[in-house]
Amino acid sequence: MRSSHTPGAVSARFDDPNLVSHAGLVPVTRLSERVGLAELADHWLKVPGPTGANAGAKVASIVAGMAAGADSVTDLDLIRHGALPRLFTQVKAASTLGAFLRGLCGGDISSLDAVARRVLQRLAAQTPLLPRIDQIALIDIDSKITQVHGRAKQGAAYGYTKVLGLHFQAVTLSTPHAAPVILQTRLRGGNAGSGRKAASLLRQALGTARACGATGPVLVRGDSTFFSGTVIATIGAAGAWFSITAPHNPAVTTAIAAIDQAAWRPIRYPRPVLDTDTGQWVTHAEIAETTLTAFTNPTDNPGRTVTARLLVRRVPAHTPTGQDGLFPLWRYHAVFTDNPTDPATAWAQHNGRAGAIEQVFADLNNSALAHFPSGKFAANAAWLTLAALTHNLMRALGCLAGGRHATARTGTLRRHLVTVAARLARTARTLTLHLPRNWPWQRAWQQIFDRTHHPPAAA
């Protein structure tokens, strides 16, 4: 694409008060109003002092800024330029929002979590956010370390990634027909164990999933970090199935060695899968099933002994030189599960875990959670919760748009549906947004606008 003007024939002036650079904030804000975001925040957040006043308006302003692409407190001023203050009321300055976040404490974070859970429940009820969730719901749990800079950040420490960071856990909910949403988050210190207190986080998340309509089978998936008696007991108490990667401890190794060679069945992958340990692409493997009794230590796991299926996959272990050995060598991967489906299906369902939750982490990294913006731990915990809430709101927006946007990344939704330039005009006491002609995603934008606005009253 080239300029159609000679150099110097174009000038730029920042003097148009009627320009709206994020016209997609109109349906985003309307959707947040429909689910009562501000009212929920006013009800649950009781922050003392002047910084806590008008909590609902401040929470709504932060969410709107995150939906527009803000990844720091200063960036929240995105919602105050041009004609945006004429479209929205009670828009707060970035300095006011930063003071509000810094004024929160640990109890306020729990209240903010309650707001986020109720917003998700209302989004699930009012939008096609989780289609066919009553047939099967997939819950994934994982943790991630986000690198931070500066020793003044509370809770920052060196964890297993050997970088200074803050460590957070996340629980997501998806279906085979829907992109994942975030059920629950929790911020911890950078050196906290990945699975520490995961059972309590899962307990709350499972309750939220049921409230979102997961009345049928629920499968909870996790890696070997969450292979513990407490976690699996919590999943069982909630009436869900578990599918957890089994570590290579002596009991698991013995169970794998006892599998008869005739029990192995070949499987092929529809698409090649990258083996992160060897860097090689895997197109076929073999799978077998046995039984494992886990958590038999009465001191560490009193009354939590579990006997369930152990699904084992093996792939050829290639030597660095590429030469074959005298006898075949295998690399084994095991999954401990009570999923009652056939082994190939159960393995495929577990294998989808990484793609689902890693997509969420990638979306958060590409938006508000590019970094933690404050030096105070509680402020960063609130930022994490609001980033998760915004992610769910954007997912609902994509589902209202339909088509490819129903499962698109949130960065794509922001680029297609939110960051849309428009000019604001007032005629006969009516505000009109004049959007670009030939906008490639005009139909999707118009659809979310129509679905988030009430139809006009009958004459």
Task: Summarize the structure in words.
This protein has 13 helices and 13 strands. It has 459 residues and is of the alpha+beta class. Strands 2, 3, 4, 5, 6, 7, 8, 9, 10 and 11 form a 10-stranded mixed β-sheet that branches. The protein has a 3-stranded antiparallel β-sheet with strand order 1-12-13, with no helix packed on it. Helix 2 (37-44) crosses helix 3, helix 2 packs antiparallel against helix 6 and helix 11 crosses helix 13. The chain is globular, with a radius of gyration of 25 Å. The model has no long low-confidence stretch (mean pLDDT 90).
Order of helices and strands: EHHHHHHEEEEHEHEHEEEEHHHEEH
Helix content: 25-40%
Largest sheet: 10 strands, mixed
What class would the helix/strand composition place it in?
A: alpha+beta
Radius of gyration: 25 Å
* Large-scale geometry: globular
Q: Count the E strands.
A: 13
Spans where pLDDT lies below 50 across 5 or more residues: none
Mean pLDDT: 90
Share of residues in strands: 15-25%
Task: Give the end-to-end Cα distance, rounded to a whole number of Å.
Answer: 49 Å
List the total number of helices: 13
